[in-house]
Amino acid sequence: MNNMKKLILSLLPIITSFNVYADDQKSPWKFPQGRWQVEEDYGFKSEVVFKKLKDGEGASGKWVDQDGNKFSELIGWMPDKKQLVALGIGNNGAYWECNFTEVKVNQIKGFMVFRDHEGQTLQGDYMIKRISDVLLESQFKTKDPKDGQLKSWKGTFKKVVKKK
Description:
Blueprint: H1 2-22, E1 34-40, E2 45-52, E3 58-65, E4 70-78, E5 83-90, E6 95-103, E7 107-115, E8 121-132, E9 135-143, E10 150-159
Antiparallel strand pairs: 1-2, 1-10, 2-3, 3-4, 4-5, 5-6, 6-7, 7-8, 8-9, 9-10
């Protein structure tokens, strides 16, 4: 009996370690897919096509904004940190970097840095909330570069649905 107890105790760390690696490999946030129209109160308007990654937990996005500027985005889930990251790189020096530290089924929250094509940079708290499978709402809290006052800009992501 003593040998059996030693065997079980020696195997316990191995058995329980499998659960650590198996848990939460999938993001609780459902990545958008397909064609979406995006409008943010601070003036950003774009169309984006999201595609699920074939070799990882995430998505890619191809963006074209209202002025014809293009962005490529990579969004990914970091299971050990329970975070989502999104990096968008555009032409003319524009980019965004988001680190979502609060990831839930219907909402992601974190910090974003956004640099536009004219070199203006905005940074602050960014949140996206899932209203439905075809509508997401965003909120970006940042200081207004003109007057330094705290601003809260809202936006929408609307899925383009083909009409039958």
